[in-house]
Write a structure and sequence with these properties.
Length: about 375
């Protein structure tokens, strides 16, 4: 069919030339020749249609920007609630399974000078093994609720009793959720392995979570009116922090050993891909599912007021505040920030020293909720 159209166009051009010859002796011939030639040329040239922008192409294909990373993801995935999984930092418990799927990874100190992690995972529905899973603490809940997740943990402490049992919290746990008689909603979602001893061998899976949510009546899709779609502000393009001039310090290495004295969590910047590679206990922190080292485009240290609650060393953190500071690391640079969180379901917002909300780079984010007074070291 295409060949036939081109033959027709060539024939039109030839006919125009023939008409020109036959009328060459008249004034009318000149005008006719010009008109026929222009018409033939316009007809013969292929039409160039405007090309869609990448944004238009992704949108037309059913993709949207992730609220967690700003990457393009299928719209169906964007509608699924994330899970917030409590994972250990104990040396004997490494590696965790499914942790590289965390788009946001929190690390907060617990009693005994050992920290714990909370992995916010949006693309969890295909994971066959998640964990191991450990207990929760009250101060993880305000961090979790701003993402409106299904909270996955293995027990807890009495200080979280009132909040964990509130109607708005959707959680599943494999052990009593706040000590004696704490209830175990969704306990059948968990299983134990024989390669490690308890409490380091409790895991869950995507099918287990789905079944538990069905039994408990928890929606798998984001809850309208509860879920807050506004979290980070992402840069248009790449934010190198060069706009801050000398106020942006070099930060090719981030040492959190003064904050997390047991794990000595640390990061090294890789300029080849623009990401920070995480280590724990002096070794690369990896995912047991794929062996990948954890990597982040953004690293945030969030200095936070805290207190010791009892002789057992249980802690409390003031997660809701607007007066504390911290640091934002990206692309081998660092700036000072002020953070603000005004309510459980409201996002934590980070501002530079000029009062502007910082612009994160596309990709995963690690957040260290640090005890105020413990320094971060970087160079």
């Amino acid at each position: 069919m295409r060949g036939k159209r081109w033959i027709q166009k060539i024939t039109a051009a030839a006919l125009a030339a023939a008409v020109a010859v036959s009328l060459s002796g008249t004034g009318f011939a000149k005008e006719t020749v010009v008109y026929a030639a222009e018409e033939a040329a316009q007809t013969a040239m292929p039409q160039v249609l405007p090309q869609p922008t990448p944004e238009e192409a992704y949108a037309a294909a059913g993709f949207v920007r992730s609220v967690y990373t700003n990457e393009w993801i299928p719209a169906e995935q964007a509608g699924i609630r994330p899970i917030a999984v409590m994972m250990p930092t104990d040396r004997i418990a490494q590696p965790s399974y499914g942790i590289s799927n965390a788009k946001i990874l929190y690390e907060i100190m617990e009693e005994g000078e050992i920290s714990r992690q909370m992995a916010i995972i949006d693309d969890w529905t295909g994971l066959p093994k998640i964990g191991n899973v450990r207990s929760c603490r009250a101060y993880y809940l305000p961090e979790a609720t701003e993402w409106d997740p299904i909270l996955v943990h293995f027990g807890g402490v009495v200080y979280m009793k009132d909040r964990i049992t509130a109607p708005d919290i959707n959680n599943i746990t494999g052990a009593q959720q706040y000590g004696v008689a704490g209830g175990t909603p969704g306990a059948e979602a968990f299983f134990r392995t024989t390669d490690r001893k308890a409490p380091h061998n409790a895991y869950t899976s995507a099918p287990g979570i789905v079944n538990a949510c069905a039994q408990l009546g928890y929606p798998l899709n984001i809850r309208q009116g509860v879920y807050n779609p506004k979290h980070f502000t992402f840069a248009q393009g790449i934010n190198t922090l060069e706009q801050y001039g000398a106020a942006a310090a070099t930060a090719n290495a981030i040492d959190l050993s003064q904050i997390y004295t047991y794990t000595k969590s640390a990061f090294v910047y890789n300029p080849a891909d623009g990401l920070y590679y995480k280590s724990i206990h002096g070794k690369a922190q990896t995912d047991g599912l794929n062996g990948e080292q954890l990597k982040f485009a953004n690293v945030i240290v969030q200095n936070t007021k805290w207190a010791r609650l009892d002789d057992k060393g249980y802690l409390a953190f003031q997660n809701i505040d607007n007066t504390e500071d911290g640091y934002y690391f990206t692309k081998g640079k660092c700036i000072h920030v002020i953070w603000q969180k005004m309510g459980d379901y409201l996002p934590t917002v980070y501002y530079d020293d000029f009062g502007n909300e910082i612009q994160l780079n596309e990709g995963k984010t690690y957040i260290a909720v640090a005890q105020k007074g413990r320094p971060v070291i970087y160079n």
